[in-house]
Design goal:
globular; 13% strand; alpha/beta; 8 strands; TIM Barrel; 2 domains; 8-stranded parallel β-barrel
Length: 271
Amino acid sequence: MSVHSEIKKITTETLRKMKFDKEKITMLTAYDFTTAKMVDAGGVDSILIGDSAANVMAGFETTLPITLDQMIYHTQCVVRGVERALIVADLPFGTYQSNSEKALESAVRMMKEGGAHAVKIEGGIEIEDSIRKIVNAGIPVMGHLGLTPQSIYKFGTYKVRAKEDAEAEKLLSDAKLLEELGCFALVLEKIPANLAKKVSESISIPTIGIGAGPDCDGQVLVYHDMVGMNQGFSPKFLRRYLDLYTEITGAVSQYVKDVKTADFPNKTESY
């Protein structure tokens, strides 16, 4: 029996129920139709169209350059490949921080044009007005605390966040605020595992960790990292399930050799 016939479409309510039932939530990124189709068929609960597309799809050093139009395009591609998973799309840098009106406008475009089921935005009390405005318009919001890559120039580093007491207390306070504001879930990125556990136990909405230990309600990884397409990126939290970089470059090398030696195409491969 296929995954699709066993389980109906995943919704924000499904994720809440999974936390209540102590069933772990799975999330991976996807940025295109073909990948989304495979990730969905593999049974993942939620697909994130991350602004990490700026890194893995466009080759930028940070997530900052990607635009809302580009994120909408990636989201449209993913939506066409998904039957079951909950689709969450990042609102990119600059589309929600300045004021709540702009934030709502960005979120509406992502839902209407992109076809996302929810949006994800980074930050706590600093973006309270934006979250309130988006949630009040009936758009589901996933929060994101800890290492927030859109603030990389403020932090100046991708190291673990919230190791100091003051930052840890603010993170816990922000998590409770995001729950109060109506966020349906929360990504915790690169924070100490014991803090992630405390946060997960302190709020009723699901936490999804990346580099935040095993006690979050779910986990998320970047697809390209998980399948080993990015050779130079190997943080401590990453488990590689495949080594596609080696597999693909090997296949390409073999193709080049076969064409050069006139081995491809052979008679059976010709009309």
